[in-house]
Amino acid sequence: MIGCGNLLRGDDGVGPVLVRHLWERGVPDGAKLVDGGTAGMDVAFQMRGAGRVVIVDAAATGSAPGTVFRVPGEELAQLPPLQGLHTHSFRWDHAIAFARWALAEDCPTDITVFLIEASGVELGADLSAPATAAMEQVISIIERDYLRPLRPASRSEVTVEFTADGYLRLSAEVAGARFPSDAVAAVVRDDVFWLIPLRGPRSGGLLLKQRNPAGDRSVLIHELLREPLLPGVFRAFWDDEQAALRIPLPRTRAPDGGEPR
Question: Which major enzyme category is it (predicted)?
Fold first, then answer.
């Protein structure tokens, strides 16, 4: 997935900004995120050998700011000629045309382009509200259609471990499938511990830290508990409605369901 545009010019930077948001969410194996900036030829060569390519760029069609255009691959057959093209005038369409010429058989055939109508491209400006809202829409589509299928699957019912020194530990499977950004919020409510995935470190909250080469994660949570919790392995359930991991907190019975300790 390639984000094109100039970060210094307001909505023209929506592609690179989108890439940064996806980086924070976590990049699954088999996917590659590229900040293409304004280097069109580099964008072309980044496509080499890819199975599927998604390009995100700003547009200036005169439509309402924030309008999203999805251009499927079959509509990319007629692209502008390369003759006389200056390197500083490269756009996404020029990059694809150049890639087809330069990469030949190594150029992907499955290419989709998302264009977001810009509101303003003033030097030093931030993304406008319409472009930001459109970017979130495109992020959701990319996550659903391209990234989620690459993330490891996880069962609805799993196990987690509370340790004697106050950590919550998650397996690599659970962390990779449910918390790919490693940023989480934790809440205790009615004797249920909720672990909620966040988009990334900029969202605040807690960070899951890798604890072994297998990719298992842990996070210090003892300060959130009003009373000590029996250490051990407990059942946890993914709550689709709340988009969070729900962990009941039995405090009077052993975690294996035996007699009280």
Answer: hydrolase
Task: Find the helix or strand (DSSP H, E) in which 34 lies.
Answer: strand 34-37
Which of the residue ranges 194-198, 209-213, 227-231 would you say has the lowest mean pLDDT? 227-231
* Residue-wise pLDDT tens digits, 196-206: 999 877 777 89
Q: Does domain 2-150 have CATH number 3.40.50.1450?
A: yes
Report the pLDDT value the prediction gives residue 99, as an integer from 0 to 100.
73
Q: What is the pLDDT of residue 78?
A: 59
User: Tokens at residue 71, please?
Assistant: 């251009």
Integer Cα distance of 202 and 225 in angstroms: 25
State in Å, rounded, how far the first CA of the chain is from the last one: 53
DSSP annotation string for 42-65: HHHHHTTT-SEEEEEEEE-SSS-T
227's CB contacts (< 8 A; 6+ apart) are 251
In which residue ranges of the chain is CATH 3.40.50.1450 found?
2-150
Least confident of 148-162, 215-229, 245-259: 245-259
Percent of the chain beyond pLDDT 70?
84
Helix (H) or strand (E) holding 70: strand 68-71
**157 Cβ contact partners less than 8 Å away, ≥ 6 residues apart:** 235, 236, 237, 238
**Tokens at 261, concatenated:** 């300790």
Q: Please, what's the b/e burial string for 122-132 (b: 16 or more CB within 10 A of its CB; e: otherwise)?
A: eeeeebbebbb
Alpha-carbon distance of 186 to 246, in angstroms, equals 10
Phi, psi of 244 (to 5 degrees): -155, 160
